[in-house]
Amino acid sequence: MPQYVSNRAGEEKQLRGLLAKLLESSSYYEELYRSTEEELEQLHRMYTSATPEFYNDIPTKEFLAQLYRSRLTDCEKALEKPYFGKLIYREAQEAADEMTLYIGKKGIANHREQDEIWVVDWRAPVSALYYSGNLGQTQYRAAQRDILVDLKLKTTLEIQSGKLLGFYDSEVVANDELLVKYLSQNKDVVLNEIVATIQKDQDAIIRRPLHVNVLVQGVAGSGKTTVALHRIAYLLYTYREKMSSENVFVLAANRLFLNYITAMLPDLDVPDVGQGTLRELLCDSLSRCYPKLRFRLTQGASEYNQAELPALLRGFLQEVKEAVFCGTVAAQGVPIQSARTVREQVDDLHEMSLLRMAQLMDKRLWSFYKNRRDSFAFPLHDAFFQQGITARADLLRAMQKEEKVLQQYYRARLKKQKPQELLNALRRRLGLGAKRPNDYTADDLCLLVLLSNFLHDGCVRGKIYQVVVDEAQDLNALQYLCLKSIFPDASFTVVGDIMQNIHSDSIESWQQLSELVFGGKTEFATLLKSYRNTIEISDFAKEIVETHSGESFACDPLVRHGREVVRRNPPKGQEIAQLTQTLAEIAQSGYGLNAVICKDAESAKKLFESIREKAKVQWLDAESGTLEKGSYVLSVADAKGLEFDSVVIWDFDRYDITAPTLDFKLLYVAATRALHELFVFNGS
To answer: Which of 349, 366, 587, 675 would suit a FRET pair with 207, their CA atoms being 20 to 30 Å apart?
Structure first.
């Protein structure tokens, strides 16, 4: 029985051979790209109105030029690090050959024979063995069936600039050792290595089918955002015949965080996807639906009881529906269709806007009337006679007018329903005052969107098949109902941490979200292992939560030790001087991305103004465009979702973690932003 162990000489030979092939492929595709571009340029010169036959060749050449350029880029990138994993396995079927596969960020095939795969894409079905397969008898799923294999060896390879630095057989070195090696580096290095270090529980979430709504509860630093972004890449690869990046939408708390996470997508072979904050999405949706509507969005906590609102809203919408489709249809007092028939027809129509329903009902009503026109003629003529309409021409005009009304009967009734009026009617039902367009909150806009889509699909965005919501604990049930209304064709990947819910009106639990919004049709996953913080920082954050709750906090940090949490108590008047000294100390450590986090925006702004002339710091808030290397001053709310090499918690003594407030969550969020070092300032 062969001994399955990797050896340096063999791996270096494999790497040298592949790099030589990649250089050959690069030259091959570069020449194809150059010649195709020349042919394309010539076609553009030859194409005139007198020679239209050349026009049909131009799109084909443009496609080929783009294809060759893409493959050339893939080869050039792969020269740096062509793969990161290796598998040796044999399928369970008789006489199956032993397979050795290398796994990389992008699949690479022989440029002359595309069926010969040099590197397998990490998203391919068989690559699941690298992330989640145990040595010995295991399986992976492909083409809707389970394929049994005997996994002989699983190896992680560390390659940089085309050189083999090290390799780790799964039976020789625990995966945590490699993780610690990567995570001990600066943040920008860590991000580049993520795909090589995806863990089994993360991979299971990433590879869930497209149609599944996935809810992920993950502790701070558990890789929730990593999972969400890699899931997008996986879905676009697996369902490439059905969807493209145009069919994906990413929602995040603010523009800063959105730019921060979507900047990672190109490295995952994901081009531009739809993206936005909730407020941007709401305003854009309503502006498309009502171009003349002018409104101003105001801040403030929700006025609505989130636990009760979904049921109350359903009841209210049912009343609106019944107001449009109810009672006997009559013309000049002559019954045309009974109330019972109307009710039966409405009950048969589901999952559509009232406008589509009205169009169908009008079509049925008119068909019903036309087939019985003669039977209605006499009673209608009699009704007109009683009104003094006796001349033949006048009767004909009166009948035509009445029939025109019947053709648009339900649509005319529907036009009386206005979203803004319905919003105020609903608010009165809830015991709240009417709203003016210059005084809408985000929840008011959500209700306007829901009402608009209920009436006529005005704010619906079709052909979005996957919606990713990051920092998902910040939204409430109403806002999720609104998202489902805007994206009716989509499944959702929702990632967040209830412990980081710092808003009083947000969801209370994932179970509440599943039941109120998704009707229980969700799959739930938990990520308890934290990869971000050192043990020392993790213990500090855990102590915060346990001090508040008096209960044990479930979190399993990766065993990566670092500096103890540094507590500083500067004498009165020396606070800024000590902070300046601390920032200089951090800079000397070589860490590139650092933060001073304050409890709220007001205190953050005050500190920034005090220190900006004394230290190299920048201001950072939700409206900031990008996050580059440097030291920043910001609030806890604006730090959510971000991570920094070093963090200073500035006003630690302003948090009361024993009180029944959200202070302990604010402090937990601030502490868990740090990758390597955490400084806590008291008396600031």
So the answer is: 675
